[in-house]
Amino acid sequence: MTLVTRCPVCHAVFRLTGIQLHSCNGDVRCGQCRQVFNGFVALIVVPETCIQPAARSAESAPDYLESGNVAVVPVAESSFPADHFGVQLSTRKTSRWWLIPNALLLLLLLGQFVHAYRTEIFIAFPAFQPALDSYCDLMQCEIDLPRHLHLLSLESSDLRVSSPAEPDVVALSAIIRNHAPFPQALPALLLTLTDSDEKPLASRIFTAEDYLDSVTDQSVLGGDSEIQVQCFLNTSSLDAVGYKLELIYP
């Protein structure tokens, strides 16, 4: 086995002997750039077969000895590649351990992204709804449906006495349309009764639970679709002659 060190300034590689290192506590002088450095710091042990004979040896260069510092003779740079150094191999092995915490951190960030933008993901990728539902069941969260009121409209509405037998009970019917390509939450209806001067007499808000049929199992308004709704109101104490109807999200 041969002792080899590398100059930290010019990076020339040198062959040493144990006597040269111990004679000056490891201080050596580079035969190329004349820099003094500690040979123990970058000391490497390599097989003899990796070392090509140098043009000189330490014994053939006595004129390099100055002030107790040993000049060392360079070995051919091509005698052993840089990736043979044990320090670099150790770094490569150690770096692989960082893959595990990095992968866990990536999964954590992905989970936070899905949780924060679950509604947007539901809108952009409706096919992911089963997976999002399972995620929310696990995390005890809900997918808040979009509420873009400007993409909803009242296609028609009507307010009339529901039955001659009950003249004080009126039936409100309306058709709500969703112009968005994605599902939205069902809006509420704001009904305002007015007099002959169109002054408001009374108002009431009808939620989806109020205007949906008890047998209708619909909790969302599908994309590019419409729904017909109906609800009833007692107006016995009011002398209303007109009404206004608006869509709102309470």
TrEMBL record:
<dbReference type="InterPro" id="IPR011723">
    <property type="entry name" value="Znf/thioredoxin_put"/>
</dbReference>
<dbReference type="Pfam" id="PF11906">
    <property type="entry name" value="DUF3426"/>
</dbReference>
<feature type="transmembrane region" description="Helical">
    <location>
        <begin position="97"/>
        <end position="117"/>
    </location>
</feature>
<dbReference type="Pfam" id="PF13719">
    <property type="entry name" value="Zn_ribbon_5"/>
</dbReference>
<protein>
    <recommendedName>
        <fullName>Zinc finger/thioredoxin putative domain-containing protein</fullName>
    </recommendedName>
</protein>
<feature type="domain" description="Zinc finger/thioredoxin putative">
    <location>
        <begin position="3"/>
        <end position="38"/>
    </location>
</feature>
<keyword id="KW-0812">Transmembrane</keyword>
<keyword id="KW-1133">Transmembrane helix</keyword>
<dbReference type="InterPro" id="IPR021834">
    <property type="entry name" value="DUF3426"/>
</dbReference>
<keyword id="KW-0472">Membrane</keyword>
